[in-house]
Amino acid sequence: MTRGRTATVLLLLAAALAASAVAGLALGPVRIAPGRVLDLVLAGPGARGGAFASIVWDVRMPRVLLGAVVGAGLAVAGAVLQALVRNPLADPFLLGASSGASAGAVLVIVFGTAAGAGAVGFLGGAGVPLAAFAGSMAALVTVYALARRGGTMTTGRLILAGVAVQYVLSALTSLVLVLSASPDQMRSVLFWTLGGLGGARWDELALPAAALFVGTGVLVTLARPLDLLLAGEEGAHTLGLDTGRFRAAAFVLTSLVIGVLVASSGAIGFVGLMVPHAARMVVGAGHRALLPVAALGGAVFLTLADLLARTAAAPEEIPVGVVTALVGGPFFLWMLRRSGRREGVVGG
User: Fold this and answer.
1) Which of 154, 166, 85 is nearest to 339 (CA)?
2) CA angle 89–92–95, rounded 5-degree value
3) What span, in angstroms and rounded, lies between the C-alpha atoms of 174 and 209?
4) How many Cα atoms occupy the beta-carbon half-sphere of 243 within 13 Å?
5) Is 182 left (phi over 0), alpha (psi -120 to 50) or beta?
6) Nearest CA among 81, 132, 124, 133 for reference residue 107
7) Is 125 helix (H, G, I), strand (E, B) or coil?
8) DSSP character for 185?
9) What per-residue string of b and e applies to 279-305 under the rule 16 or more CB within 10 Å gives b?
């Protein structure tokens, strides 16, 4: 893959992201002409446009931006996790990281260590994002330890470990939901379990955006060690990589990014599974090109998924996590079948 081709792919994805963002700003219960949307965007937040300006800048713009940030971050995290565990089926959702982040955040919300349900938007202090990070990290470490029994890891064992951890975390979240007496808390818990971007606000965008740009920037600088991991443990050691230390540091950084993003959007699955595979088909497995392409691809995908979620059954809104699962479930089954044929095992 040449740099020129990678640059072309990035430009095309940037154009697709701009088009999907305009569509997200234009479509909804109130439809606004794309030309009118562009005029309002170019005029800035103080644009005079009455109700249309308020819809674009106060309601839809934060949502579109949050969708792009979360989609990009989940795609990057998925690409990194696939390299760290050397498994094409790794994904923040399938490995329990998203469920762990949700469980940690829900525990904080319901039991009051942060300032009630309003802490979802980080307005109640650092309790929710810290709990989300801790839950994400604990889930990833648990799944990795279970799957690497005996020093080897198979696709079947990794998926079984991820499913088992997800079941435990889902049961914990359901128990918290049953014990919660507050309708506001119950709505917040459902938000975490289904995923959604409807609560996006301008003052909530800074932290997830920072996590995306800083985390992705650091991970891009680690592209060579990530590439070395693809050669296997012995090959990476031979080339001078301390795989244990590097893998631990990368797990912590990836969990931090996932925790912050899930604390903003709830658990949204399969973005980190599908988008990296699509990116590899276009730019190959080298992470210096793969990570930026996956980021833009994830942003486009989740922006369009959220647009479908809020328009397909209008005026009702479908949780965006349901939309990504409907697309990602069949893709996952196809990947599992292909991986099982290659390994000679599907469930073991």
Assistant:
1) 154
2) 65
3) 30
4) 17
5) beta
6) 132
7) coil
8) H
9) bbebbebbbbbbbbbbbbbbbbbbbbb
pLDDT tens-digit map of 161-191 = 888 898 898 888 878 777 765 666 676 667 6
- Cβ atoms of residues 68 and 138 within 8 Å: no
Distance CA 183, CA 140 (A): 31
In the prediction, which pLDDT does 295 show? 97
> Residues of the chain with pLDDT > 70: what percent?
86
Q: How far apart are CA 155 and CA 77, in angstroms?
A: 19
How deeply is 181 buried, as exposed, middle or buried, from its count of CB atoms within 10 A (0-12, 13-18, 19+)?
Answer: exposed
pLDDT, mean of residues 238-263: 84
More confident site: 213 or 144: 213
How is residue 121 annotated by DSSP? G
What is the DSSP annotation of 60-107? IHHHHHHHHHHHHHHHHHHHHHHHHTT-TT--TTTTTHHHHHHHHHHH
**81 vs 137, which has greater pLDDT?**
81
Residue 329 above 90 pLDDT?
A: no
- How many residues are there in the chain? 348
End-to-end CA distance of the chain: 36
